[in-house]
Design goal:
Blueprint lengths: L3 E2 L9 E6 L2 E6 L4 E7 L1 E2 L8 E5 L2 E5 L5 E2 L9 E4 L2 E4 L2 E5 L5 E7 L1 E3 L7 E5 L2 E5 L5 E7 L1 E2 L8 E6 L2 E6 L4 E7 L1 E4 L5 E5 L2 E5 L5 E7 L1 E2 L15 E5 L2 E5 L5 E7 L10 E6 L2 E6 L4 E7 L6
Antiparallel strand pairs: 1-2, 2-3, 3-4, 5-6, 6-7, 7-8, 9-10, 10-11, 11-12, 13-14, 14-15, 15-16, 17-18, 18-19, 19-20, 21-22, 22-23, 23-24, 25-26, 26-27, 27-28, 29-30, 30-31
Length: about 300
Amino acid sequence: VYEMCESFYASDLKLVRVFRDGKWGYINKLGKEVISCSFEDSENFGHDGYALVQFNGERFCIDTLGNRIEACDHVVQWRKTNGNIVNRGYVYGLVNNQGMVVMPVIYDQLYKMPNEKFYRCSRNKLVGLANEKGEILLPCEYEEIGQFWRDKNIATIRRDTMYGVIDSNFKIIIPCEYELIQGDLTGNLIFKKNGLFGLMDLNTTILIPALYQQFNGFRQIMYTRDPNPYAMVMRDSLYGYINLKGKEVIPCKYKHLGYEIHNNRVFYQENNKYGFLDTTGKAVVAPVYDRVFDF
């Protein structure tokens, strides 16, 4: 019934801390909850029979019956590690500028990425997000949460091995239903479903159907030198090129094809010899060479 439960590591420890529904309490050696889970933070009981707790943003001591004790010199056992991140043993939490715990000290990891105003946290190998107030933006239910793309303010997420997308308000705009989602330089998303790749927009409108075993994306569209609107694809284990509308300008019929198009030319292999195709799929240089280089 508890998300976290400490062990009775010392013979004279009569009560230990337990964590449930975001709050700490105490159980005895019989497993009975003798002090209810109502504290934002708590420490173990000392030899004097008192424990330091935090309740409604106030820190004070209690006895083993849960009664408040006014005269108590206990101090917190967590320590600051980076900014307002604190750790107690091997787990981490977050405090505010007044030193009050706003995010319980229960996380396996808690950190900020450069240029991000929120925290990334993890529990049991699953990750989530929280803001600077300790409020959960995304629960620790995801295997992966990508970095936000600056131009689109979206990030990929992965749950139960399937990918989706969240926006800058941390709302799921594309559910985790895809085997893979990657950004494309067109501003759209390359997706994988049923083992095949296609292209869709942020509204999941299909722009290019999922027909391809490999889809390299329109990676050359932003080149400052020799940009072009073509993407290499593979269908039925053969390579070709498509344009932005999804038309195969070079049919998928080649076992070996150049990885990029340069100056409207791409090399191909036929009968162990190399030649060149143009962007209509026409052979402009016959395959008579043992080795070729890009234009």
